[in-house]
Every structure is written in C-alpha cells, then in structure tokens.
Amino acid sequence: MAKREKIPSGESEIARKFKQNPGLYIGSVVILVLVTVVFLAGDLLSPKNRGWDNTFGYYDKAPISWVPDNIFNRFQRSAVQNFQSQGYDIENQWIMAQVWRQAYEATVEHIAILQIMKRSNYHVPVKTVDRQVARLPDFQENGRFSASLYNRMSESSRLAIWRQTQEEIIKNLYASDFFDGLLMNNAEAEFIGSLSSPERNFKIISINVDDYPESEFLAYADANANLFDSIHLSRIIVIAGEREAKKILDTIQSGTITFEDAARAHSQDGFADRGGDMGIRYNFDLEKDIPSLEDRNKVINLRNGEISPVIKVGESWVIYRAEDNLIKADFQDETVMERVRFYLRNFDRGRMEDWAIEQANEFASMVNMNRVNMNRVNMNSLSFEDAARAKNLNVYDFGPFPLVYGVMDIATYYGGSPINLFSSFSNFNIPSFDQDYMKSLSKNENFWKIAFSTPLQTPSEPLVQGNNVLVLLPTEEINVEETTAKDVASMYLSYWMSMLTEQSMRSYFLGNPRMDDRFWQVYTP
Predict the structure, then answer these.
(1) What total of structural domains would you count in the chain?
(2) DSSP 3-state assignment of 469?
(3) Does 70 share its domain with 163?
C-alpha cells in the first residue's frame, strides 16, 4: 500500500525544501505572494491590458477587483449558475448586471471580514489549513487523501487552493463568533411557529369586470345618449391673453383672414398645421377640453360653419368653429358603441365593478337559498358548484394555508427561489390568475380578513381585486400537528433569522464609511 504523502507544513519542512531545491522553493514563494496579491489587490490585469477598469471599489483601501480565478470571479461564476438554474437568460443585460452586482457585494463582504480578522491579528494555524485541504474532494480517492492526486496538481494551483481554504476558515470562524453572540428570542420564534395553525382549504369563483354584458353597455348608452353626440370641430388656442384672442376673432369675422390661416399663424397646439382641424369630437371628449358645462354647450350646439365666442380654458383662450352639424348618437353604429365601451372602461369603470359585485351577491344568495331550501339536509361544496354552473362560472380549489398576511420569504444567497416558512398562498395555481395576480392578492389585507372570518361552508362577501370580483367558500379548517409549529419556529430561529442577519451584515459593510463603492460607475461608464 502506497505511503500517504504528508501535506507540507512547519518550519522544518520549509528548511528541508529550501536546501533541496532553493530555486524551486523561491519560485513557489513568489507564486504564493502573487496569489495573495490576486486576492488583496486583485489587479494583476491592469485596465491598460484589459481595456477596461476592473476595480469596482475599495473596502478599507483594499481594492475590489475582478481578475480571472480570483474570489470576485468565483462569486460571479456561482451567481451565473444560480440565475441559469432558475431559468434566467444571462445574455439579458439587466440580468447580467444583477449577476455582477451580487458577485461584487459578496466579494465586499468577503474582503471586509478578512480585513477585520487581519486587524485583530488572527492567523489560522498552518496545520489547521493543511488538515482542511486534505479533506477537499480534489484530493480524495476511495474516501481517503490521495498523495498522487495532490502531487499531480501544479504547485501554483495547490497554493491557490490552500489560500482559498485559509480564507474560508477565517470567514467561518468570524461567522460562528458573530452568530453565536446573537440573542435569539425563543418566545418570538414560538409565536411565529403558532401562526402555522389553523390552516384552511377553499373553493373560489371569479367574475371578471370586463365581462360586463353588451346589454348593459346599451342600457348605459340609452341613459346617457348626449355623452356620445359628436361634432366635427376646428379650434385656435391663444395664450397671449383674451384681448389678443378677440382681435384674432374680429379679423376672422371681418374676412381679413380665414380661420385656417389664423390657426396656422396664431394657434398654440398640434392642430395648427392642419388649419385647426380637430376632427370628430364626442361630447364626453369635450368634457376634458372644456370643463364648463355652459361653455361646452356653446360649442356643441354650433351649426355648420358657425364660430364660437372666445372661451377661457385654463390659462388659454380658445376659438372654435363647427365643420358640420351636431350628429346625434346612433347606437346601431358599431363605431359609436365602441366609444361607449371605451368611455365606461376608462371613465365610469365603477359601474362595471358594481355590476360584477351584484353578480357575485346574486351567486352567493343562490348558494344560501339552496341551503335553506334543502332544510336540514347537509349541503356540501356541490351547492357552491351547482350555483357556479348555473351562472356559467368555474370553481377552483386551493389550500391549505394558514392566516399569514403577506409572505414571509427568505431569498437564497444569490437571490434564488424563496424559501417559505409557511405555505404561501401566492404559490397556489388557480388557472384564471397569473403569479403576479396571486402575489397581489396575498398582500390584500381584506382578502385575509374575509378568508378567515367567513364561517365554514358559507360563501364569503364579494372581494374586488383588480379586474375580478371573488367569492370564497371555506371548506375545511385544519389544526396542524404541534411538530409542524415547532419546525417553523426552529427554521425561523436557526435559518430565517440567520439569513436576515447575514443580509443585514452585508448591508452594513456596503454602507460602512470604509466602503468606497464605484460599482455602477465602472460597470456602466
């Protein structure tokens, strides 16, 4: 059995190597110094050679530089792998900027910790580093240290690995001391754990506000017909004052100048080049242009070719001319009906929401009516589904999840997939809703109140969220096992708080007066 080679360490080993081959040893020392410089200075490849400034900032005067195979570069490669594993396109400029920034922040933390430990005069014993290097997968064969694998690697590579291992030991010691010194509140953790129970399961239906029926659009149009009367207008806007506007009006009326030429010469809007021609305007369009009902009626009632008096609109003075007679709204004309729909969706959408809420209330009353009509027969979720079928609505199941307002997520080290302390409502799949909608719903305080205050097997009051009006049916309430609450408390105490503290520590280093952050100036010169 081959004798395992001892990893070089100690003063006697250094003397022996120097006597055997002083030239090789001096070369190795130079390489070690260079590796140290790569980490601390990180600037072997100068901006002149690289063609760009690869120093992104300084911490305590130590440069934060990107050099192939240095710590910054290793963090960058790790960040790329994390983003790729989540399906992000790293060719995307925005994503690549996040990759570089996250690698940079990790490097800042790395260097800051080493600087702190250096100032405290802490040094890792050589034998401690040697033992750790011997355990690395690079030098393992059949579960044991392999001298042949160790010797097969170049001296410079071994020195680099040794240095990296030394730094990791220093960082781990700092982190261990730091986190061991934190006072974790067990009562707080127990409270967080208690939030995991009870959990509820639900059924849900959704009524889309944009499903507002054509009959309702038509009814609105008939009741507000004058809004959709239209007239072809031209105008001249004057900002020099009322006197100037009246002088222009006098010259037009006297025939000294045409309306079109006056518009081209004096009007202060985008219609001037067209001789003031505004095109067709609906009555509701003019509500914004002419807020005064009295002045608006002066314009809308102009006959073909008639010119209005000077009308004050905001800080301007306006002269209108009718290019045709008023056209009364014809709701058989699809163009007019499209304007009705546009107006309701953009200026009176509350009416559409009211309709959807009314439909939701009608749905809920059908479910309750069924329960009453069935007398003492126990009605289950089928009553909810029967009512949905009658209203041509889809029913979706989701849950279970506990009463947790918002989402308590922990981002992974490089901004990866969140780790949830609780079942997250936003992670459930409801076909009608995308993930952004689910996230916004999970942050709706009223949603949580309704979801957990509505009695079981009873349809909830309508909930408006975005373009939808929802009705929930709580179907089941589950008290989770005590071990689940303990697991949540343990994760909160040992992992969530540690991660939050680590993120806070990184923010501390980045905001420290010792920090000279030049990242964005260098990344986007």
Answers:
(1) 3
(2) strand
(3) yes
Assess if residue 501 is contained within a domain: no
Do residue 315 and residue 275 come from a single domain?
yes
Regarding whether 355 and 302 lie in a shared domain, the answer is: no
Token representation of residue 166: 């030394």
Give the residue numbers spanning the domain of 390: 199-210+349-479
Q: By C-alpha distance, which of 132, 217, 123, 159 is closest to 25?
A: 159
* Closest C-alpha among 181, 183, 184, 194 to residue 489: 194
Structure tokens at 224: 């507000």
pTM: 0.58
Which CA distances in Å does 517 have to 57, 115, 356, 514? Answer: 5, 16, 53, 10
Q: What is the CA radius of gyration of the chain?
A: 37
Q: Does the residue 373 lie in any domain?
A: yes
pLDDT digits (tens, 9 = 90+) for 464-497: 999 999 999 999 998 888 887 787 777 776 666 6
Half-sphere exposure of 153 (CA within 13 A, CB side): 15
Q: Looking at the structure, tell me whether residues 87 and 162 fall in a common domain.
A: yes
Whether 161 is in a domain gets the answer yes
Stated length of the chain: 525
pLDDT tens-place string over residues 365-387:
888 765 544 444 444 444 799 99
| Least confident interval from 22-26, 85-89, 230-234, 452-456 | 22-26
Contacts of 227 (CB under 8 A, 6+ apart): 282, 283, 284, 329, 343
Q: pLDDT digits over 328-353, tens only?
A: 999 999 999 999 999 999 999 999 99
Distance CA 190, CA 491 (A): 11
Residue 518: what residue type?
R
**Rounded to an integer, what distance in angstroms lies between the CA atom of residue 44 and that of residue 50?**
10
**Of 435, 425, 433, which is closest to residue 404 (Cα–Cα)?**
425
